[in-house]
Design a protein that fits this description.
The complex is a heterodimer of chains A (about 625) and B (about 90).
Chain A (H helix, E strand, L loop, with lengths): L8 E5 L4 E5 L3 H7 L2 H12 L13 E4 L14 E6 L6 E6 L3 H6 L5 E5 L6 E6 L2 E6 L8 H12 L4 E4 L2 H4 L7 E3 L5 E3 L4 H7 L2 E7 L9 H18 L1 H6 L5 H6 L21 H7 L1 E5 L9 E6 L6 E4 L3 H8 L7 H14 L3 H17 L4 H4 L9 H13 L2 H6 L3 H8 L9 E2 L2 E2 L9 H9 L13 H4 L21 H17 L12 H12 L5 H21 L11 H5 L14 H12 L9 H6 L7
Chain B lengths: L1 E4 L1 H7 L3 E3 L6 E2 H11 L11 H4 L5 E4 L2 E2 L5 E2 L4 E5 L6
Parallel strand pairs in B: 1-7
Antiparallel strand pairs in B: 1-2, 3-6, 4-5, 4-7
Classes of the chains: A alpha+beta (about 625), B alpha+beta (about 90).
Chain lengths: ~625, ~90
C-alpha cells in the first residue's frame, strides 16, 4: 500500500512496562480496513470467552482508520475496542475530535495496552518517544481538569484521551473522554472501566508526521466534488446540532419517553436543538477534517446549572430529557456536562436513571433506597443528583452503575421488566416501535442495543444508497424485506467504523463510490464494491464469532417485552409493534448463520475467517 | 387542507397554521413551492430549488409519516412542518 497507514501498532504492557512495535502484514489492513475491523481482529486473537473484562489480560485497543490525518471529510475519528465489563461480550465505542489524527501523526495506526499498572499512570506518545509516567496528581480529577493539567505540563499541542473519577472506580457505565471540554466520548459498553482497571488515567499524543497519501491531487479533487453538497444537506446539524431532529423524532414516535412507556410529549420543543440555539449556544464545534460541524458549545451563566463547555447532543436530550420527562434544557446541559466530567456514558446513565424513576413510581424502591430523594418523573434535581451518585459510585447510583440488567437482577422481583436493554447495553434514544428495522438492528448488534451498528433508520428517514439497493428511503413499518436490508446496513456500518468516517455523512450524500475513490487515492487500493462489502461482512461476522465464544446465541438476539408487546398509544408510531421473530427468520439465512445464530462453516470460509475453525 | 407549523416555524413566520383549499390532489413538492411563496422565511435564506431544501432545511410529517416530495396530498390532509430529521 502506498499510503494511509504506517503499518505500525504500538504495544504497551503496563504490568511490566514493556513497549514494542508490531508491524502487521498489508493483508490484515486490506481485509479489516482499520478502526473497528482491525481492533476486532486483535481482540479475537488476544482474548476469549473466559477473559475477565477488568483483568490485566483484557487489552484496551485504540485504533485509527486509513483516512485519519488526511483531509477526507469527517475522518478525525477513532475506535476503542475491548471486552466489555458492562455486557461481558464484544465492546467498542468511537469518538470524533482530534485524538485519532493526533495518534496518526505520531507514526502509529493504533495502540494496544495490556496488563495492569500497580499505580496510576498515563502514557505519553510524543517526539518519537513513548513514556509511561506517574499519574498520581491526576488520579481523582475529572476529565476537563485532567486535560487542562496535562496541557500545563506538556503544552497546548497535545491531545488527551482520559477517564474521569467513574472510570477510576470501575463503574461499568464509564466512558473514555477526549479533547477536554470539547468532550468527545467513547461512551458505550463501559470501556472507561477497562482503562480504570489498568490504572491508566490518560493516553496523550502529540505528533507532526505527515500521513502518507498515494494520490494527493486525486483526493483533493474528489473531496472538492462532494463537500458543497454535504455542507448543504447537513446544514440543519450545523445550525442546531444533532438535536435538530428532536421535534420530528417525537412526532414520528421515535423519541424515548418515560423509560419507553410514554407515547407523546408536548414539552419536547422546550429541549429542541432550535431552543438550544436561541438560548445557550455560544459556538459550534467541528471534529478533525469535519465539514458538518454538529458539535455544540454552550454557556449557562447563572443559576444552579452554571456551566461552559460542550452542549448536549440528541442522545443526551433523549436520555436525560425525554426518558426522565425533564424538559429543563439547562438542567439537561448540566447533566451532560457532569457525565462528561465524571466520564460517564450519557446514554446508559440516562437509561439507568429513567429505570430507577420507574421503579420508584412502581413502589419497587422507595425513599429508603434513594437516600430520601424524591425520584419523580420530570424532576431535574433528582436527575442531576442521580448523575452525581452514579459518577461517584455512591448511594443508589452505586447499584445503577452496574447497568440496568445487573441492577434489576440484584433488586429482583418485578424490576427486570423495567430494565430496557439488549445483551446488557441500555437502549439509545431511538424506539424500535417507530422503525421495525431498529428492533432487528438492536437485537443482532454485536455490542448490544445500538442505533449506529446498523443505522438502518437513516435509510428509512432521508438517506439513500442506490448501489446497495436503497434508491429511496424505505417504509419504516414494513414487516418483510428486513433481513437482507439490516444485514447490508450492518456491513456498511462496519466499513464506516473501520474507515473511521462519521455516519452523518450518509445524510450528506455519501456513497460507496466516494469511499472507494478516497480509499484508492489514500492507500492505492483499487477495491471494487464486492470486495468492500465483503470486508464489512467479514468484520461483522468476526465480532459475532467472538460473541459466540462468549456464549451468545439466538436467545440473546432480542429486545425487551415492553418493546415487543406494549405499543405506543398515541403519536406517530401508535399501535406498531416490531415483528422481531419473523424478521430474525429472514435475517439468519441472509447472514449465512444457522437457526441458533451461529455463523455456518461455509460463511466463515467464504469470508476468509477459517483460521478459527 | 391544513398546514401546521411547529414552534420554531410559527415563531419565525408569525402564525401556527395555514389553511387552504385543494381542488384536486397535488404532489407535496408543489404544495411546498406554494408555501414558500406565501412564507418566504421558510427558505431560511437558502437558495436553490425546493427539492434541494426539503429534508435538509425542513420536513413534513403527515399522520405520523415522514412525507416524501412525491407523496400526494389531498384536501382532507393535515400536515406539520417540522425541523429536518437527522443526527443522533
Amino acid at each position: 500500500m502506498k499510503g494511509g497507514y504506517w503499518r505500525k501498532i504500538l504495544r504497551i504492557n503496563l504490568s511490566d512496562g514493556r513497549v514494542w512495535e508490531q508491524t502487521p502484514d498489508e493483508d490484515l489492513y486490506r481485509k479489516y480496513i482499520g478502526g473497528s475491523g482491525i481492533g476486532a481482529r486483535f481482540l479475537y486473537d488476544l482474548t476469549d470467552g473466559n477473559t475477565d473484562p477488568l483483568g490485566p489480560e483484557n487489552p484496551l485497543i485504540f485504533m485509527t482508520g486509513p483516512f485519519a490525518g488526511t483531509p477526507v471529510p469527517t475522518s478525525g475519528r477513532h475506535q476503542v475496542i475491548a471486552k466489555s465489563p458492562l455486557t461481558g461480550i464484544y465492546g467498542e465505542g468511537d469518538a470524533g475530535g482530534t485524538w485519532g489524527p493526533g495518534l496518526k501523526r505520531c507514526g502509529y495506526d493504533g495502540i494496544i495496552i495490556e496488563g495492569t499498572s500497580d499505580k496510576p499512570v498515563y502514557v505519553l506518545v510524543s517526539e518519537g518517544r513513548v513514556r509511561i509516567l506517574d499519574a498520581g496528581d491526576l488520579w481523582g480529577r475529572d476529565t476537563y481538569e485532567t486535560d487542562q493539567k496535562l496541557k500545563e505540563i506538556h503544552g497546548e499541542n497535545i491531545v488527551v484521551s482520559s477517564i474521569g473519577p467513574s472510570g477510576e472506580k470501575l463503574i461499568k457505565l464509564s466512558a473514555i473522554m477526549h479533547d477536554g471540554s470539547d468532550a468527545r466520548a467513547v461512551g458505550r459498553t463501559g470501556l472507561g472501566a477497562v482503562m480504570g482497571s489498568k490504572k491508566l488515567k490518560a493516553v496523550v499524543v502529540s505528533g507532526n508526521k505527515k500521513v502518507p497519501v498515494a494520490d494527493p491531487e486525486g483526493l483533493r479533487n474528489s473531496i472538492k466534488e462532494l463537500v458543497p453538497t454535504m455542507v448543504q444537506k447537513t446544514l440543519g446539524m450545523k445550525q442546531h446540532g444533532t438535536a435538530v431532529g428532536t421535534v420530528a423524532t417525537e412526532r414520528i414516535g421515535d423519541f424515548p419517553l418515560k423509560n419507553w412507556a410514554g407515547s407523546v410529549w408536548d414539552k419536547v420543543e422546550n429541549i429542541s436543538g432550535q431552543r438550544m440555539t436561541e438560548t445557550i449556544l455560544t459556538g459550534r464545534y467541528f471534529c478533525g477534517s469535519c465539514v458538518i460541524g454538529c458539535g455544540r458549545e454552550v454557556e449557562i451563566k447563572e443559576g444552579p446549572y452554571r456551566m461552559k463547555g460542550a452542549g448536549p447532543e440528541y442522545e443526551a436530550l433523549g436520555m436525560l430529557g425525554g426518558m426522565c420527562l425533564v424538559d429543563n434544557l439547562e438542567a439537561i446541559a448540566y447533566g451532560g456536562e457532569l457525565c462528561n466530567r465524571y466520564g460517564l456514558d450519557v446514554i446508559s446513565t440516562g437509561g439507568a436513571i429513567a429505570f430507577a424513576m420507574e421503579l420508584y413510581e412502581q413502589g419497587i424502591i422507595d425513599k429508603k433506597d434513594t437516600g430520601g430523594l424524591d425520584l419523580e418523573w420530570g424532576s431535574a434535581e433528582a436527575m442531576i443528583e442521580m448523575v452525581h451518585q452514579i459518577g461517584k459510585g455512591e448511594g443508589l447510583g452505586r447499584l445503577l452503575g452496574h447497568g440496568v440488567r445487573e441492577a434489576a437482577r440484584r433488586i429482583g422481583g418485578r424490576a427486570p421488566a423495567f430494565a430496557i436493554h439488549t445483551k446488557g447495553l441500555e437502549f439509545p434514544a431511538h424506539d424500535p416501535r417507530a422503525f421495525n428495522s431498529i428492533a432487528l438492528g438492536y437485537a443482532t448488534s454485536n455490542r448490544g442495543a445500538c442505533h449506529l451498528q446498523a443505522a438502518s433508520h437513516m435509510f428509512e428517514k432521508t438517506a439513500v444508497m442506490p448501489e446497495l439497493g436503497i434508491p429511496e428511503p424505505k417504509e419504516r413499518f414494513r414487516t418483510d424485506d428486513q433481513g437482507e436490508f439490516v444485514k447490508v446496513c450492518q456491513d456498511l456500518m462496519c466499513i464506516l467504523d473501520s474507515l473511521k468516517v462519521c455516519k452523518f455523512t450518509l445524510y450528506g450524500g455519501l456513497r460507496t463510490t466516494h469511499v472507494r475513490e478516497w480509499l484508492k487515492c489514500v492507500t492505492g487500493w483499487d477495491m471494487d464494491l464486492e470486495e468492500l462489502m465483503a470486508a464489512g461482512e467479514r468484520i461483522f461476522n468476526l465480532k459475532r464469532m467472538y460473541n459466540v465464544k462468549c456464549g451468545i446465541s439466538r436467545k440473546d438476539d432480542t429486545v425487551p417485552e415492553r418493546i415487543l408487546k406494549q405499543p405506543r398509544t398515541e403519536g406517530g408510531a401508535k399501535d406498531n409493534l416490531p415483528p422481531l421473530e419473523s424478521m430474525l427468520e429472514e435475517y439468519y439465512p441472509a447472514r449465512g448463520w444457522d437457526s441458533d445464530g451461529v455463523p455456518l462453516r461455509e460463511t466463515i470460509e467464504k469470508l476468509g475467517l477459517e483460521w478459527d475453525l | 387542507m391544513v398546514v401546521l407549523f411547529s414552534r420554531i416555524y410559527s415563531e419565525r413566520l408569525g402564525c401556527d397554521r395555514y389553511e387552504m383549499e385543494l381542488k384536486e390532489p397535488v404532489k407535496l413538492i408543489k404544495l411546498l413551492e406554494h408555501l414558500e411563496e406565501v412564507f418566504p422565511d421558510l427558505k431560511n435564506q437558502s437558495k436553490g430549488e425546493v427539492a434541494d431544501r426539503y429534508a435538509s432545511h425542513y420536513l413534513c410529517i403527515g399522520n405520523g409519516r415522514i412525507l416524501r416530495p412525491g407523496d400526494t396530498i389531498t384536501n382532507r390532509d393535515t400536515i406539520e412542518i417540522v425541523p429536518p430529521i437527522m443526527g443522533g
